[in-house]
Amino acid sequence: MGTLVVVSGPAGSGKTTLAHELARILGCPAIIRDEIKQGIVAGRADYRPEPGDAETLRALDAFFTVLRVLLQAGSMVVAEAAFQDRVWNPRLTPMREFAQVRIVRCDAPEPVRMERIAARLEADGHRRAHADHTLTVGRPFTPVEMDVPTLDVDTSDGYEPALGEIVSFARTGRR
């Protein structure tokens, strides 16, 4: 049985940074939904992102296909995406048949998140693959809720709880 460590949270909450760090420490793959989408549109100079467009849906399907293959092979995997409950829960729940699931929910105050979003738009040309222009202050976000071990992490300034505790949780499902 594989282990799926879901790293979730609203845009700008630091989830991609944490997911890559966790995967590095754990010695397992990090599967990042945004990076899959970036690969899908990388060669398309004409691509203009919109929420829920065909490429977004293609990336979502590829994301869950890759997760399923790795988890059914018995791998530990760190998976990162926003994971809003209504969108993601129906796709995550069936994975409990072949994976132990743990959820890490990242968050930071809205001003911190908005500052991070603005900074990455300037610094990362690959962000053109995403509809970041639709991200606004006060946009509702409903964290994923499942009956599995869940850890809330404040990413405002580093990690609270500390990175070592997050790694331990990812390995064991316990704090």
Automatic annotation (TrEMBL):
Q: Which domain of life is it from?
A: Bacteria
Pfam families per record: AAA_33
The name this protein carries in UniProt is AAA family ATPase
Give the originating organism.
Answer: Actinomadura gamaensis
